[in-house]
Write a structure and sequence with these properties.
The protein has helices at 54-66, 166-182, 223-242, 288-296, 302-313, 317-324, 327-338, 344-369, 380-391, 397-410, 414-421, 429-442, 444-451, 457-468, 475-490, and strands spanning 3-14, 70-71, 74-75, 78-81, 91-94, 101-110, 113-126, 130-135, 141-146, 153-159, 195-205, 215-220, 250-255, 260-266, 276-277, 284-285. By secondary structure, the chain is an alpha+beta fold. It is elongated, with a radius of gyration of 30 Å.
């Protein structure tokens, strides 16, 4: 039997606000000493009352609009009851029946074709404290709790079960993360925990419209982990059903080091959480005027920017997709292109050259250094200056790589590097002709081979000319003069 996966993702994104969801404690807790950014509200002391963070509400409205959602006129906070050590109050303030936004969609690329994936809702809640598990000298286990994270505004984006492969799940998460970064509501950094994903996955006979028994997978802290865990879980469920067994509805955790999912607990249903309206918070009445103001403030979204970069700069869909995956990368690209006023074909040629540098050589250097583009010392105008040096044949493409590496290390301007390192390209035909003749005279066998019909010998001779000129001769001039000299020797 051929099986089909059915995948729905639940994404939690910490929101970029100055203060926490229901109090004035700082929401930026990452660098703070444990339990220093707390107050009686965070600690759930008796008698305290929550106050709604307006900015967090606006961020969810903003996200809903970017995801083509409807924005409710009436939204309500609810108590989600469950017991866990990191839940200070013994319940979480969340939303259930009346979320801020609902019924949206976004598109992903599915085998080269755009496909619409549904968004059930985007609602607002509070993050929990953080447990750190350790062992003492005798090997006994214990846990420490840092309450700094408790109460940080958290948005949950619940997707419909419309994904049909781990690769589509990766596409969905990449696209969603990009949108949240573009609209400025979250850093969406998985490594820091500000973008977390739980996956619901089941399998069913291909062609069936009935859903199988779903399993929730947690503890995935990277896109790679999401893909690997889904691949494992699909295989596990397939083998279980084909051997005559049945899939249990449960929550399983992903163990990165072992590459497996393990059972954690039976899956809860909504009624297990005993949702009830939060009595300490009034319902939210969201005016249409407020929604319109937020809509007008939305920036250009990733899909729109991708289309514009292709249209205005003549970029391929592949290059434009790489550049627009992150807003700061796209901003960097356009700043580099704008460093020189050009139009028409000249503008497109410049844009393509800069895109190639960003997506190839600069990406290689960033990957080796383990940093992001905006953390590097290569300023956008410097990249434009490097293209100038290539265009006016001051440096060859090989020399340009050397210059870029030096700029990456030092932050110096490319022209300064060229002057300091003596990397300028030799274009004087007289000087190159002398080098060509020296290479031919020093390698008579290669000349004889070429004249005898072995055209590959020409590549060897080009290398010898470059060796004589210490790699500084302009390749185009070398090829031209070498061809002329070899032709003359045929006579």
């Amino acid at each position: 039997m051929e099986w089909e996966p059915v995948i729905g993702l639940e994404v939690h994104a910490q929101l970029l606000t100055k203060s926490k969801m229901f109090c004035s404690c700082p929401a930026d807790y990452q660098e703070n000493e444990p339990n220093t950014g707390v107050c009686p509200v965070c600690l759930a002391m008796p008698g305290v009352l929550p106050v709604i963070n307006k900015q967090a509400v606006e961020h969810v409205i903003r996200t809903g609009l970017a995801l083509n959602c409807s924005i409710g006129e009436f939204a309500q906070f609810d108590r989600k009851n469950y017991s866990y050590p990191d839940l200070m109050k013994g319940y979480q303030i969340s939303q259930y029946e009346n979320p801020i936004s609902y019924g949206g969609w976004m598109t992903i690329d599915s085998d080269g074709e755009p496909r619409q994936v549904g968004i059930t809702r985007a609602h607002l809640e509070e993050d929990v404290a953080k447990l750190q598990h350790a062992r003492d000298g005798a090997g006994a286990g214990y846990a420490l709790m840092d309450v700094n994270r408790a109460g940080v505004p958290l948005m949950e984006v619940v997707g419909e079960p419309d994904l049909r492969s781990p690769e589509e799940a990766r596409q969905y998460l990449t696209k969603l993360r990009s949108i949240l970064q573009y609209i400025g509501v979250s850093t969406a950094d998985m490594e820091q925990g500000s973008f977390r994903c739980d996956a619901n996955v089941s399998i069913r006979p291909k062609g069936s419209t009935e859903y199988g028994t779903k399993v929730e997978v947690k503890n995935m802290n990277s896109l790679r982990a999401v893909v690997r865990s889904l691949e494992y879980e699909i295989q596990r469920q397939t083998e279980l059903l084909e051997s005559g067994g049945s899939v249990s509805q449960e929550t399983r955790g992903w163990l990165e080091d072992r590459g497996v999912t393990v059972s954690q607990r039976s899956k809860e249903y909504a009624n297990d959480y005993r949702y009830l309206p939060e009595p300490d918070l009034p319902p939210l009445l969201i005016s249409r005027e407020w929604v319109d103001e937020v809509r007008e403030s939305l920036p250009e979204l990733p899909d729109e920017r991708l289309e514009r970069l292709q249209r205005d700069y003549g970029l391929s869909a592949y290059d434009a997709a790489l550049l627009t995956a992150n807003r700061r990368t796209a901003d960097y690209f356009e700043e580099a292109v704008a460093a020189k006023a050009l139009e028409g074909e000249a503008l497109q040629a410049r844009a393509k050259a800069i895109a190639n540098l960003i997506n190839s050589e600069l990406a290689r250097l960033l990957n080796m250094a383990g940093i992001e583009l905006w953390e590097s010392k290569v300023a956008a105008p410097a990249l434009s200056e490097l293209v100038d040096l290539i265009d006016d044949r001051t440096v060859s493409s090989t020399q340009a790589k050397q210059v870029l590496e030096e700029v990456f290390e030092t932050g110096d301007r490319p022209r300064k590097v060229v002057e300091a390192k003596g990397l300028s390209q030799v274009t004087d035909e007289g000087a190159i002709l002398d080098a060509v003749r020296e290479a031919l005279d020093s390698n008579p066998q290669a000349v004889e081979d070429y004249l005898g019909g072995k055209e590959n010998a020409a590549k060897f001779l080009v290398g010898q000319v470059m060796k004589v000129t210490r790699g500084r001769a302009a390749p185009a001039v070398v090829n031209q003069l070498l061809e002329e000299q070899l032709a003359a020797r045929k006579l």
